[in-house]
């Protein structure tokens, strides 16, 4: 049986539908009692793009109640295959003087979804995720990303040190993040193309990752808390580097 992504909730579903490139294999399951402007828009997109629509009763949605707020809509879509370090995509991002976000073992699916959402919203070209010891792109990630997984390419990195060495040959600068970083984010806003690295929750970047960075930046903190959540830090760094 073909693996399916399961997207629940009205906003994640409509964002996924808006960003879908190919409607084949996608099914919308909608409650027979669901109504409202956003439901009308969801149904309109599905009808225009020939997406299969299935009316369901309360019993169908009961299986999703414990894990997520479905809001009367569930979308099944073919599971998106993460690209294995695609050279053509990386080359294009380099030529466009773009930005890649590399996640060094982010294990929390909520953090992963939030970072993907920020990366897409702020205009990054791709998100690279380590193959091992990382969260998988699942229902939680898709929902937390508010549908951003449908818009931005994700890349699976099997060997992070080799990946960084390879993208350096394409002209990428490597900017890591750490609480002991000594580079100013402000000075990096004109460096392109660039790969921004976000380290794992609690441990940060691994040694071999850090050794390959051209710059290591930190976020100046003024309160009593000495660190930020990984997804919050990622959003701040991406925004600062892209927008200054």
Please explain how this structure is put together:
The protein is elongated, with a radius of gyration of 19 Å. It folds into 2 domains: 4-78, Ribosomal protein L30/S12 (60s Ribosomal Protein L30, Chain: A); 83-243, Alpha/beta knot. The chain has 9 helices and 11 strands. It starts with a strand and ends with a helix. Helix 1 (10-19) packs parallel to helix 2 (37-48) and helix 5 runs parallel beside helix 9. The strands form 2 sheets. A 7-stranded parallel beta sheet has the order 5-8-7-6-10-9-11, with helices on both faces. With 244 residues, the protein is an alpha/beta fold.
- Given this structure, which CATH class of the largest domain is correct? Alpha Beta
Distance between the termini: 47 Å
- Please name the CATH architecture of the largest domain: 3-Layer(aba) Sandwich
Number of helices: 9
Oligomerization: single chain
Q: In the CATH scheme, what's the topology name of the largest domain?
A: Alpha/beta knot
Number of E-type strands: 11
Ranges where pLDDT stays below 50 over 5 or more residues in a row are none
Write down the domain tally: 2
Q: What is the fourth-level CATH superfamily of the largest domain?
A: SPOUT methyltransferase, trefoil knot domain
Give the integer mean of the pLDDT values: 88
- Strands across the major sheet, in which order? 5-8-7-6-10-9-11
Shape annotation: elongated
Radius of gyration: 19 Å
Work out the strand percent. 15-25%
Helical percent range? 25-40%
The helix/strand order is EHEHEHEEHEHEHEHEEHEH
Give the structural class. Answer: alpha/beta
């Amino acid at each position: 049986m073909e693996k399916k992504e399961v997207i629940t909730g009205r906003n994640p579903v409509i964002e996924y539908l808006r960003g879908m490139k190919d409607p084949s294999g996608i099914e919308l399951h909608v409650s027979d009692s669901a109504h409202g402007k956003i439901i009308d828009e969801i149904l309109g997109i599905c009808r225009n793009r020939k997406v299969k629509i299935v009316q369901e009763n309360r019993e169908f949605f009961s299986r999703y109640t414990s894990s997520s707020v479905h809001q009367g809509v569930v979308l099944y879509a073919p599971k998106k295959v993460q690209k294995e370090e695609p050279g053509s995509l990386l080359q294009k991002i380099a030529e466009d003087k773009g930005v890649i976000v590399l996640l060094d073992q982010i294990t929390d699916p909520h953090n992963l979804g939030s970072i993907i959402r920020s990366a897409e919203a702020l205009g990054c070209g791709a998100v690279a995720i380590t193959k091992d010891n990382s969260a998988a792109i699942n229902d939680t990630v898709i929902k937390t990303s508010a549908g951003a997984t449908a818009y931005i390419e994700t890349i699976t990195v099997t060997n992070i040190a080799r990946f960084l060495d390879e993208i350096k040959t394409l002209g990428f600068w490597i900017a890591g993040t750490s609480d002991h970083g000594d580079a100013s984010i402000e000075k990096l806003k004109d460096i392109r193309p660039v790969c921004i690295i976000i380290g794992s929750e609690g441990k940060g970047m691994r040694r071999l990752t850090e050794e390959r960075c051209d710059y290591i930046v930190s976020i100046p903190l003024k309160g009593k808390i000495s660190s930020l959540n990984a997804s919050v830090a990622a959003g701040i760094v991406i925004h600062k580097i892209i927008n200054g």
